[in-house]
Structures are given as structure tokens and as C-alpha cells.
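ok here's Valine--tRNA ligase, seq below lol
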Amino acid sequence: MPHTSLKETPMSVIPDKPALEGLEAKWGERWSEQGTFLFDRLRAAEAGRTGVYSIDTPPPTASGSLHIGHVFSYTHTDIKARFERMRGKNVFYPMGWDDNGLPTERRVQNYYGVRCDPSLPYDPDFTPPFEGGDNKSSRAADQLPISRRNFIELCEKLTIEDEKQFEALFRQLGLSVDWTQTYRTISDDTIRQSQLAFLRGLERGEAYQSLAPTLWDIDFRSAIAQAELEDREQQAAYHRVAFRRSDGSGDIQIETTRPELLAACVALVAHPDDERYQPYFGSTVRTPVFDVEVPVLAHHLAQPDKGSGIAMICTFGDVTDIIWWRELDLPNRTILGKDGRVLADAPEAIVSDAGRAAYAELAGKTVFSARKSMVELLQASGDLIEVGKPFNHAVKFFEKGDRPLEIVSTRQWYIRNGARDEKLRDDLLENGRQMAWHPDFMRVRYENWVGGLTGDWLISRQRFFGVPIPLWYGLDENGERDYDRVITPSHDSLPIDPTSDVPAGYTAEQRGVPGGFDAEQDIFDTWATSSLTPQLAGGWQRDEDLWNLVAPFDLRPQGQDIIRTWLFSTMLRSTLEDQRAPWSNAAISGFIVDPDRKKMSKSKGNVVTPADILDKHGSDAVRYWSASSRLGMDAAFDPQNPTQVKIGRRLAIKILNAAKFVLSFPVPEGAQVTHALDASMLATLDRVVREATAAYENYDQAKALEVTEAFFWAFCDDYLELVKERAYDQTDVGQASAALALRLALSTLLRLLAPIVSFATEEAWSWFEEGSIHTASWPEALDIEGDPAVLATASEALVGIRRAKTEAKASQKTPVSTATIAAPAAKIEALRAAADDLRAVGRIAELSFAEAEELAVTAIELAPVEA
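and the structure came out like this:
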């Protein structure tokens, strides 16, 4: 017998009026008490790796609040987890919290009105000036400076509170996460594993330090990696400036949007094929105002159609300047500091008194003020030819920053990522090809990113709340860092904080003194830790038995916008450490867009928080909306009129009501499916089971929902109506067949819908089955012989009967004396198989059939209305 309970259900178990309200709390608590979604280590060990389905769940950033996009994408993952669990897999479904990083620090600064000053001592009795709100308008100067340790304590306090709220919302949504398998990206275990992975990479030569031009956010006071950049439109104007040729034979005019960097100019550059400037290649010119001799060079990245066709190379105005500086082997004359202001000391190349005096007028100024002063200096010298009309152009920003990035020279740590290593790049591409991508076209975005890398991965950050880089430096006899003497800790001493821990062979008194040691102050970029989420969740180098059961993971679900950051960086770490892809599947969700089809984002102010939506419509309704969109496809959401959510709520309510109705029909002992209409319905359902199962297997929950829901509504609207009279009538020889078919269909439909409509299906299941539906076996085709055409044709005829009564302005309950249904011969045969049920549902005394090209009710005579 297929999986379903045939015992009679006491109607006292079923509410008089089934409702969705309260189901989230009821079943959430029950699932937690019963450990429904716990990962069973013992059973997993017995089954081996093939019996496990492991998910590398995205750890949301614990800074602020979740938005509707989280609900959207995390539901997609949960649907797959529930499906695999019902298929018999032992599902490893952890949850992480991404605590560290720049967003958390900024939130703490705004929330408490503080900022970190590492020079200050720790205050064990510190109380922040205020608590609450986002205080985004506050300036750094208005924030109270506190010690690094005090600041980190506030970060930990606030992220823990955020995580509690996130977990509560995820539980309300019904995520079947194993909440005993959680991790934080700032815990001792995480710090140890992150530091260990770095040290292993350092030993293999994959991590290295370099003094180089660095993209710098002057507000966050931190280096920014390539993957964290975004272009934003900014207004600018071309300034045409004359450079005098060194031999006195005239001038060369350039156009620049950044005249404030003139003191950092190291060359002029034009395209090698540009005939206008070919005569000048190899000669020199002198910079206006500062009178520094610089060469005129050729490079293929120069654009003949941009400005005057020749540009000045400054260290550094933009990313192209870095390429020119590196490939043309030019000097570094950086004039901007980490605070975004012009450095006090002029570059050594400026030697004239007039040049140094001019530079002194710029020193200490912001970029904007320095630009204004530089224009005035150029006007006074007569070297400013003209200023063009303002225009908009793309400028590099940190994706979470407010002001354009500058480029300063700093010493940073990097991990090799294939930008300058062809073999590593090929390995990354090959490992990407070894995975299944859902949808497949997202693979191209990964490959384009790998192919477009221009530099290694910058992983150090000049921040405070994060994983410390576990290194010290030896100091020379003058107390200066010797960067060739990097001191590393032993692996078994991790985790460490070099600012408070002492390296082996030294004493605390040797910190900061000549011949002693100095701590690395920087921390890892948050992605340098988040790139290890499979390792953090799966017990790498901590619980090897667990690691061997779950790795490589089966699934990485994530958003399309972080393919270049999270997916790529995780692939890189796995390729470097294990020479393999970290997962076998990547499921990429689309964006949530507002009714105007604009991507929802906090900066645009169009983000919708999900709490009110969940409270108002119920979690099943919201899960239904999420499931309705295929992976990789954007979904519109209108909080004022959430149509799909309302449809989902209607479905969830119908599930409860239909289940109550079906369970009202007792199934006699020994019942068999004998009626053609019942067999037809179950044969049709078999096809739905096969299609939905294939769709779930292929990560297409939208297709699975589409085919299941279509059948469910036809089942309720047509089949239930057709057989209810027979199912009620204990004297009808077909009663047992109808009641059994209804019960089998209910059991199958509830399980097909359980991954999506998780609360209503669990409630209905509990009325007639033991245990949770979410650990029940996935439905399989019943293989009952039946002709699907019988149900399809009978449903078509039922529509015709209803229409005929409506056109006669009669109630559907009105008795009919005679009715004739015309149809093709093949359909008449199917109609005869369901004739008794058609007569019963239509209240037809005499039903006849006639051949015709199309099915239609050709004659109907209503019974006389009794006086």
C-alpha cells in the first residue's frame, strides 16, 4: 500500500474552521522540540557521503535588518533542502552569521555614537554616549573615540542582538536549518581556521605582502579590493593645460579632469599609432607650475579620441595610471594621504623654490579644495588654456562608500588569484566547468570575472573588528620594521591576536623596541573569512570526520551580484587548498525589483522589510511568492499589492479545507481503486509526481509548483465535485474506490507541496499521519492503471454542465430532467466511464451522449420547480 494512513480520522482532531494563523509558532516550536531538521551524524556516518546533502548556506551580514530579498533567496534554498530530506538524504543545513567587516563597524559607530582610536587604553566601565537609531548624519568628529577593545566589544554586542532577530525571522519563515550547526565569522573557531588557511597559503607562497598603489576609501580609512568596486556617475570637467617642451620648441596640451594631481605627474602618454604625437615620443616636457621634467611615452591604452589624445600619468589618478606606472616603469610621486588630503611633504622631484611654494599652497587640503587652488595657480602661470563644460563620467567607489576612491601607496597583503598566473586561472575556470550552474548562463559571469582580473586579491584591511592577520615583524636596530623578517605563529597556537599575544622566543617587553618585534595591526577583509564558509561550517581542520561527510558540498546558493566576490573567492580558496571545486551545484537567485523594475537597495530607499508581510499574509504565502520565480530571474514585489503572496495564501487555506473535506470520507478496510474516474485521476497525478520530482531535482522549484498547483486546483474544482456524492454514499459500490483515491491523492499532494507550503501541509498531515511530513518519504508514482483522458473529459463536461445552468440562470443545485453531451467518439467512451458521477454532480436524471466534432452540452432540460 502506498504511504498514507487509511485509518479513520476522528473529526475532533480537525479544527471546525481550519486557519493559517498561529501555524508558524505551533509548528516552529514542534520542529525545534522534536529535532525534525537536525543533522544525524550517526546515520550520516553509516550512509556515507552519498547519503548526505550538504548546503553552504550564505551567512547574512549581521548589521541592520533583513530585507525581502533575503526571504526570496533563502526560501529557494530551503525548498531544495526539504525536498532532499524527504528523498531520504541526511541534510546538512547550517547557518552562519557574517559579523565582521566594514558595514558592521559603520553600524556600530552610528548606533552608539563612537569611533575607534587604537591609541586609547581599554575602559572596563565604558558606557556608550547613546544607543539606538542609525545616526547616519553624525560626523566622525562628533563621535566619541574609544579603545580598540571597547569598540570590538560593542561590535560583538550589537551583532549578537542582530543575529537573534535574524534567527527569529528565519524561523518564522520556516527555514529547515539545523540551528545547532551555526557559526559566526568572528568566533574563536572561525578565527583559528581563517588564520590557519592564511598561514598554509603563506607557506605555499600563495599569500604575499607588497608596497603598491592601493584603492583607498578615505572615510573607512581602508584598502578596497577589486571585487568591492562599483562605478557611479560623477560630474567633472576637462581642464586643458599646457606642458612646455624641454627644448623650448613649444608646448603639448593635455586635458585632465584632475588638475589637483599635477604635482604627482610622472609622464605624458599617447597611443603609439597616433601620428600627432609620434614625433615627441622619447622627448621630455616640464610640468606647469612645478617645473618637473617628465618623459613623453607611448602606450596602447592611451585613447586618441579622448580629450587632446595625450594624457598625463599621475601617481595615481585612476586604475589606468597604475597600469601605466607599472608597465612603463615610472617613479612613484604619490601626493595624497590616507585621509584623502594632500601630503605635507612635496615629492623630491619638485626642487624649484616656486614649485615648492606652489605645493605648500596645496598641502593639507582635500581633493576638492586642492583642485580649486591648483586651477588658480594654473591661471596665474598662464598654463590653463581653458576649462570645458561639465559632464558626467564613471568614477570608482567602494560599494558601501560615500566618496570616490583615491589611490595611495600602502603595504598590503595579497593572495594570488590567477590574475598573473595562467595555470591557476585555468584551474579556476576548469573547476567552474566541473560544477552544475542553475541557471547555466550564470557560469559566464564567473568566467568573465576570472578572465578580467587585473591584480591579485588584496585581503588586508585597516579596520578593527575582524580576524587579525596572525603575524609579527622583527624590528631592526633603529626600531623599524624589517619586512623580510615576518614572524609566524605555530599552527597549534591559533587563534592569536598579534597586538596582545607575543611570538615564540620573545618577551612582552620586546614589543616595539629596537631588536624586538612589532605586531601586524591589520585584519583580514571580510571576504577572506567568508571565502571559507564550507570549511567553517564543515569542520575543516577541526572535525575531519564531519568534513569528509559534507565536503565538497552539494550546493552553494547565493545572489548573482556576489558571484565575483563570494563565489569566486570560495572557489579560489578551495582550488588552492584542495585542487577542486567546493561544491557540485551553484544555485543563483535573481534580484528583487520594485514595481518600477528597479533593483531594491538601501541606497535607493526602496527596500521592503519582510516582518510585516509575514505577519499579515503568513509565511506559506510568502514562501509561495518566492517559489514562483525561477532561479536567476528577477522578481517584482509591490508591498501595496502583493498579488502572488495573496494567491499563495489562498492556496494554503485551500489545502487545509480540501484536506478536511477529503478526510471526512472513511476508507473501508480492504478498499481498492476500481472506478475508471478514480484510476484516471491517480494516473494523471502520477504524471504530476514525475514532472514535479524532475523539476525539484533540477533546482526548478517554480516548475514543480506550477505543475503541482495546476493539478491541485483541478483536483479540488473538478474531481472532488465529481466524486463527492459517490464518496458520501456508503451503499454505492464505488464508494471505497473514491474514498481511497481521495486519500491517496491527498497524501501525495501534501508531500508534493510540503517543500513550499510548509506549515499548512504539516498541519493537514498531522490530522491523519504520524510524524512530520517533512521527514516522510517523497511520493512516488502509484502506477495504478488508468486513462488520464477520463478525468480530463469528465472535467470538460462538468464545465459545460455548469455553463448550461448558468446560462439558464439556474443554481448549480437545480435538478436536470435530461441532458445531452455531444463529443467525438473517443471522448464519448471516456464520458461513459464517468457517466454516473456526471449525473450525480449535475443532478441529472437522464444523461445521453451524441457524436460531434467538439464536446458541448447540446441540450439540457431543467426539472420542474416544485410548488
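fwiw The radius of gyration is 35 Å. kinda neat tbh
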